[in-house]
């Protein structure tokens, strides 16, 4: 379990994180979602023990990452760039990683390189952007660390490599008892993968969402009316979209009053649609996270 307790951090007098608090359960994927500058990278760097918070604490499996640094071998931070690795070759990096992560599995590392058709020699900087992203994950999962923190793992990658990377992450989580944190502003990707979402907004936790129950808490309804779309619905309900006489409305599951408003105007169509995470974000956060 990762426990983030009341973490606050300023950088150059700028309040980056403000009393941030949440837990990551073992064996789960937690998505950290927020706009550019919300503090996602800073948060992941603090959790992995790279930078210290001004106040607050981070516990990894009940050990404080700053006062018991040996716990760091169980945490890997994968930045969104491989710049730090560019001087190394694919072979040399193994030695470096083995020093930091004593459980690094060299056989697994080379097997994965083969599986993804990497050459086993050459400099890391020669890899393409997509290969670098995949390579960083191969390295991270070869450490056998129990906690892997991924900063925007698919940012700027094409659809094919993105799919390959997300599939790889999902397989690793299914096969190993690892806990993953993924920062992203791609809600649609997190929706498919995450068990738990932490929404960061201007350095604070705006909300936490459990994917399992989330979709049971809301209903997305498409309605169409014979004549014009009722002003009452537009004014008093969460209308996700409206085009002429047809609209899509988000209701909380137990919102009988909202349902009564929709039905009061005798819709000619009233149909429940599949709900996406983005629908809920748009409503809960006023559309501000609609960034993908
Ligand atoms: N080393 C630094 N020097 C100055 N400001 C910093 C530094 N690191 C972070 N910040 C500031 O802290 C805030 C949060 O940055 P952070 O990178 O954690 O956000 P983020 O949510 O990861 O953003 P992005 O999605 O753009 O990567 C930003 O306003 C950023 O300018």
TrEMBL record:
Q: Among its keywords, does the record have Nucleotide-binding?
A: yes
Asked if the Swiss-Prot or TrEMBL record annotates the protein with the keyword Nucleotide-binding, the reply is yes
Q: Which UniProt keywords apply?
A: ATP-binding, Nucleotide-binding
Cited SUPFAM superfamilies: P-loop containing nucleoside triphosphate hydrolases (SSF52540)
Annotated GO molecular function terms are:
ATP binding
Lineage: superkingdom: Bacteria
* Domain ABC transporter residue range list: 2-227
Which PANTHER family does the record match to this protein? ABC TRANSPORTER ATP-BINDING PROTEIN YTRB (PTHR43158:SF10), SKFA PEPTIDE EXPORT ATP-BINDING PROTEIN SKFE (PTHR43158)
Q: What is this protein called?
A: ABC-2 type transport system ATP-binding protein
Top-level taxonomy: Bacteria, Bacillati, Bacillota, Bacilli, Bacillales
């Amino acid at each position: 379990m990762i426990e983030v307790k009341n973490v606050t951090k300023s950088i150059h007098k700028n309040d980056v994180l403000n009393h941030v608090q949440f837990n990551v359960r073992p064996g789960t994927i937690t998505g950290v979602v927020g706009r550019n500058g919300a503090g996602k990278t800073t948060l992941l760097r603090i959790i992995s023990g790279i930078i210290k918070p001004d106040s607050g604490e981070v516990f990894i499996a009940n050990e404080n990452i700053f006062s018991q640094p040996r716990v760091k071998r169980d945490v890997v931070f994968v930045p969104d760039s491989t710049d730090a690795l560019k001087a190394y070759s694919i072979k040399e990096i193994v030695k470096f990683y083995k020093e930091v992560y004593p459980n690094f599995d060299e056989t697994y590392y080379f097997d994965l390189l083969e599986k993804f058709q990497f050459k086993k020699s050459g400099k890391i900087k020669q890899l393409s952007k997509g290969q670098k992203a995949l390579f960083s994950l191969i390295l991270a999962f070869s450490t056998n660390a129990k906690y892997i923190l991924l900063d925007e793992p698919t940012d700027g990658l094409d659809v094919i490599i993105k799919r390959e990377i997300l599939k790889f992450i999902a397989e690793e989580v299914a096969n190993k008892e690892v806990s993953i944190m993924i920062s992203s502003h791609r809600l649609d990707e997190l929706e498919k993968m995450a068990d738990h979402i932490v929404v960061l907004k201007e350095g604070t936790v705006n909300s936490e969402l459990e994917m399992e129950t989330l979709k049971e808490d809301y209903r997305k309804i498409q309605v169409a009316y014979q004549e014009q779309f009722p002003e009452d619905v537009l004014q008093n309900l969460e209308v996700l979209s409206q085009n002429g006489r047809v609209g899509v409305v988000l209701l909380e599951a137990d919102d009988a009053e909202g349902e009564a408003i929709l039905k009061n105007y005798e819709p000619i169509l009233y149909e429940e649609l599949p709900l996406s995470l983005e629908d809920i974000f748009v409503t809960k956060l006023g559309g501000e996270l609609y960034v993908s």
